[in-house]
Specification:
The protein contains six helices and three strands; from the N terminus they run ααααββαβα. By secondary structure, the chain is mainly alpha-helical. Helix 3 (62-75) packs antiparallel against helix 4. It binds zinc ion.
């Protein structure tokens, strides 16, 4: 009888030990799995940080641009910018920057890897000298060089659009889809103090 009780106790202890080891192993595996996921997504999560702050830092603020617009009237006389012109240019700059950042934030939610440039609603005469519509950049290039987020100067009509295709644009033969960067080197870009008065901002009657 005593022997039977000891046997049962031993069996129960053995079962408990087995269950304990099993649970621990499960936990270890789970932790390992989580670690590998974090590791795999390390770059992903850094790259996917909203570009808002860095994009703002990479360019002059509205006050600096307003000052420049004021002085350019005096210095160059190239464009006789009225106060209303300045307001329109500044408002457009602000809206365009916010819109392009929002495009990337939305793209991040959808896992977009490539973005391409487009002139909307008309060509930007300044930017056209640097790149063409359809030139594309990767999300990682945007992360490393937030200055490549348009607009590039007051009156700039360049916008950025997500490329939703599954193919790697670097391998595509799609007409006009060319990488903006050559071997990870940032390309020359328009100076922020170029000023353009696109017809689209003033309407066709302006
Ligand atoms: Zn431009």
């Amino acid at each position: 009888m005593v022997l039977a009780i000891i046997s049962v106790l031993l069996l129960v202890i053995l079962i408990l030990i087995a269950v304990y080891i099993g649970l621990n192993r499960g936990e270890v595996e789970q932790v390992e799995e989580e670690n590998s996921m974090i590791h795999a997504s390390g770059i992903y999560s850094i790259v996917r940080k909203s570009p808002r702050e860095e994009a703002m830092k990479a360019r002059p603020d509205l006050e600096e641009i307003r000052k420049y617009l004021l002085s350019s009237n005096v210095d160059t006389g190239k464009y006789q910018l009225s106060e209303r012109d300045q307001d329109i240019l500044l408002e457009h700059w602000d809206e365009s920057l916010k819109k392009n950042i929002a495009v990337i934030e939305q793209g991040d939610k959808e896992g977009v890897e490539f973005y391409y440039y487009e002139f909307v609603p008309e060509d930007c005469p300044v930017c056209k000298r640097y790149f063409s519509r359809g030139h594309f950049v990767t999300r990682e290039e945007i992360f490393h060089h937030p200055r490549i987020i348009p607009p590039f100067h007051p009156g700039c009509t360049t916008s950025i659009f997500p490329h939703h295709g599954k193919e790697d644009l670097r391998d595509t033969t799609e007409l006009g889809m060319l990488p903006l960067f050559k071997e990870d080197v940032p390309p020359p870009l328009p100076e922020w103090n170029a000023i353009v008065k696109p017809n689209a901002l003033w309407g066709s009657t302006a």
